[in-house]
Write a structure and sequence with these properties.
CATH architecture of the largest domain: 3-Layer(bba) Sandwich
Oligomer: single chain
InterPro entries: FAD/NAD-bd_sf (IPR036188), FAD/NAD-binding_dom (IPR023753), Ferredoxin-NADP_redctase_2 (IPR050097)
CATH topology of the largest domain: FAD/NAD(P)-binding domain
Keywords: Flavoprotein, Oxidoreductase
Organism: Gryllotalpicola kribbensis
Catalytic activity: [thioredoxin]-dithiol + NADP(+) = [thioredoxin]-disulfide + NADPH + H(+)
Protein name: NAD(P)/FAD-dependent oxidoreductase
Helix content: 10-25%
CATH superfamily of the largest domain: FAD/NAD(P)-binding domain
Strand content: 25-35%
């Protein structure tokens, strides 16, 4: 690192951050990865849908990715919480688990911090989250094929999620005190029952989910299911940098994953893109790494071919 400062600081060590870091050090860039080591997918036993890695535990995937990144010259990692990223890209870090506080002045910053999840306030839900209950349909619906399922939560996309889940498991009940517009009629027409009584708890025997207990005490037998959390982008440290966000607070990026702040990039679940899958985040990490590398060469990224249909924030 030149004068002890990295070319790039990557905030977050999930699939997007690790893939970007690996590609950047292979481009002979010095990279410091800052991570709190509190991944959103920690409760999940297996991750699915990533070619060559289907069924791998997510924490094992992170471990392998970090080891491969750190095997290259120019790669460094620190346990820390980013307190602020300034408009001049100064990065202030509070060290964790014995690692030092840092003030960094990189040439580029990549935000790959993902989302935090606020789960429905239901007793025992966390005890089954990651095993019987999940939030990612694409990641976990196949393993629930043919089971009796619950969908618990709220939000304007709840009915659409229910219709998608029913493709794998038609025996589905949506537990939602309120649904918008004609959503309930749509679900009923598809043979999906709606239960409006508030959910009090998840019932089970040891590690096996057996049902959903409602506020009245009535228990509806269910083997597994999905929850619809509130997803909150983890980027509060960008207040001074003031990058543009969408209506949900996610960072807005262009087709090359640049934010509205020069030198500041974002990839993975912290951006306004879906679906939220490991393979998608990793792909974005590879794209943004090339963008950063070419931008540091003097703006060559804009002259490189781009086969994406993404919009522009310019």
């Amino acid at each position: 690192m030149t004068d002890s400062q990295p070319d790039v600081v990557i905030i977050g060590a999930g699939p997007a951050g690790l893939t970007a870091g690996l590609n950047l050090v292979r481009a002979r860039r010095s990279v410091l990865m800052v991570d709190t080591n509190r991944p959103r997918h920690a409760p999940t036993l297996r991750s699915h849908g990533t070619l060559g890695l289907d069924g791998i535990p997510p924490l094992e995937l992170r471990k392998i990715g970090r080891e491969q990144f750190l095997a290259y010259p120019g790669a460094a990692h620190t346990n820390g919480r980013v307190e602020a990223v300034g408009a001049d890209l100064t990065v202030t870090v509070s060290g964790l688990r014995g690692d030092p506080d840092l003030e960094l002045r990189p040439r580029a910053v990549l935000v790959a911090t993902g989302l935090s999840e606020v789960l429905p306030d239901v007793e025992n839900l966390r005890a089954y989250y990651g095993t019987a209950l999940h939030s990612c349909i694409e990641c976990d619906a196949y393993e629930k094929s043919g089971q009796s399922l619950a969908l618990i939560g709220s939000g304007p996309d709840l009915a659409a999620r229910a219709l998608e889940i029913a493709h794998w498991a038609p025996d589905l009940i949506v537990f939602a005190p309120a649904l918008g517009g004609d959503d309930e009629e749509r679900l009923m027409a598809a043979g999906i029952r709606v239960e409006r009584e508030p959910v009090a708890a998840i019932e089970g025997e040891k590690a096996v989910m057996t049902g959903v207990r409602l506020a009245s005490g009535r228990v509806v037998a269910r083997e597994a299911g999905f929850v619809r959390p509130e997803w909150i982008p983890q980027a509060s440290f960008l207040a001074e940098a003031d990058a543009a966000r969408d209506e949900l607070g996610r960072l807005v990026v262009d087709a090359r994953f640049r934010t509205t702040v020069p030198g500041l990039y974002a990839a993975g679940d912290v951006t306004a893109r879906e679906p939220m899958q490991i393979a998608v985040a990793a792909g974005e990490g590879a794209v943004v790494a090339r963008t950063i590398h070419l931008d540091l060469l003097g703006g060559l990224a804009d002259s490189a071919p781009d086969f994406r249909d993404g919009g522009s924030i310019g």
